[in-house]
Amino acid sequence: MMTSEQPHVVIVGAGFGGLACARALGGKPVHVTIVDRRNYHLFVPLLYQVATAALSPADIARPIRRILGKFSNIEVVLGTVTGIDTAARHVRLADGRELPYDKLVVAAGSDYSYFGHPEWAEFAPGPRSLEDARRIRARLLTAFERAEASRDPDEQDALMTTVIVGGGPTGVEMAGAVAELARHALASDFQNIDPRRAKIILIEAGPRILSAFPEKLSDYAKTALDRLGVTVILNEAVESIDARGVVVAGRRIDAGSVIWGAGIKASPVGDWLGAPLDVPVAFRSTRISW
Ligand SMILES: Cc1cc2nc3c(=O)[nH]c(=O)nc-3n(C[C@H](O)[C@H](O)[C@H](O)COP(=O)(O)OP(=O)(O)OC[C@H]3O[C@@H](n4cnc5c(N)ncnc54)[C@H](O)[C@@H]3O)c2cc1C
Predict the structure, then answer these.
(1) Interval between CA 180 and ligand 1 midpoint (Å)
(2) How far apart are CA 208 and CA 215, in angstroms?
(3) Atom number of ligand 1 nearest to Cα 80
(4) For labeling, which of 163, 183, 223, 230 is most exposed (least CB within 10 Å)?
C-alpha cells in the first residue's frame, strides 16, 4: 500500500544493481519507482551465447514487471532518462514526463568505449545489449554463408576470420564461443567450406589476457583458447577498424566479423549528476542470479 507521506525512491535502471536495490526496498514503507528504457531485465553475462547462436534472446530477458510484480510498493516505468534536476529533485524522461524523488538511485550501468574512435562501433559491435548480440550473430552467420557462396579461396579465408578486440573477460568469452560455433555447431553444415578451418584471432594490447585476474588464471585461459584453436596476439593494439577488418601494429587483417570487447565507460546518467565517474576494473567470477 502506497501513501503520499512515504518517501519516494526513484531507481534509474533495472539491471543487476537497480533490481537488487528494488528488491531490498520491496514491502518496506517507501514508494519506489524503477525506470528503465527497456521493459525487460537482461542477463548480460550470457549475451555472448546469444551472439553465437547458443541461446535465443528470450532465454536471457525477463519482464521487469514480472520480477517485481509481487511488491505492491514498487511501480515500474518504461522510459529513457534524459536528465536529472538535482535542485528540483526530479528525473526527466525522453517523452517529457518528470518523476519527482526524495531519494535517487542511479544504476544505469555502462557502455562500450571505443577509445576516441566512435566510428569503429559500426564495424565492431560488442555484446552489451540484445540488439548488439543479434547484430554479432547475424554478422558471424552471414560471413559463413558468404564464404560458402564465394569461389575465391582468399575471400573465403577472410570471411571465415573473426577478430575479437580486447583480452578481458568479454573478449575471452567471445573468442571461446566463436571457436565452439565454428569447430562444432557449424562444422558439418556447409558443402563448399569447412568452418573448422575458421580463424579466430583475439587481440590484446597488454602483455597477457585477463590482466585483472591472477596470472595463473590468465595462463589457464590462454591454454584453453590455444586448445580451441584461437590465435592470441599480445602486446599489439588495434590501430583502425573498417568494413574489411582491422589494422594491428601496421598489419591488415581481413575479417568477416570484428567484435569489440576492449573498453567500457560509465553511463552518461551519472554525468548528469555532476558526480565523479568511475569504471569497473573487472567483474569477479559471477554470482549473479535472477
Ligand atoms: C558480455 C558481458 C559478460 C559479463 N559477464 C559477467 C560475469 O560473468 N560475471 C559478472 O559478475 N559480471 C559480468 N559482466 C558484468 C555485469 O554484466 C555488469 O557488471 C552488470 O550488468 C552491471 O550491473 P548494473 O546494474 O550496474 O548495469 P546493467 O546491468 O547494465 O543495467 C543498467 C540498466 O540501466 C538501463 N539504462 C541505462 N541507461 C538508461 C537510461 N538513460 N534511461 C533508462 N534506463 C537506462 C539499462 O537499460 C539497463 O537495464 C559481464 C558484462 C558483459 C558485457
Answers:
(1) 25
(2) 8
(3) 42
(4) 223
Q: Whose CA is nearest to atom 53 of ligand 1?
A: 128
Tell me the backbone φ, ψ of residue 141, rounded to 5 degrees.
-70, -40
Q: What tens-digit pLDDT sequence spans the chain (290 residues)?
A: 455 689 999 999 999 999 999 999 999 999 999 999 999 999 999 999 999 999 999 999 999 999 999 999 999 999 999 999 999 999 999 999 999 999 999 999 988 889 899 999 999 999 999 999 999 999 999 999 999 999 999 999 999 999 999 999 999 999 999 999 999 999 999 999 999 999 999 999 999 999 999 999 999 999 999 999 999 999 999 999 999 999 999 999 999 999 999 988 878 776 788 777 665 544 433 333 34
Report how far ligand 1's centroid is from the alpha carbon of 278 (Å): 15
DSSP string covering 223-282, please? HHHHHTTEEEE-S--EEEEETTEEEETTEEEE-SEEEE-S-EEE-HHHHHTTPPP---S-
Residue 34's φ and ψ, nearest 5 degrees, are -110, 125
Active-site position among 131, 173, 236, 239:
173
Which grid cell is 290?
535472477
Cα 129 to ligand 1 centre (Å): 9
Q: Kindly report whether the global pTM for this prediction surpasses the value 0.70.
A: yes
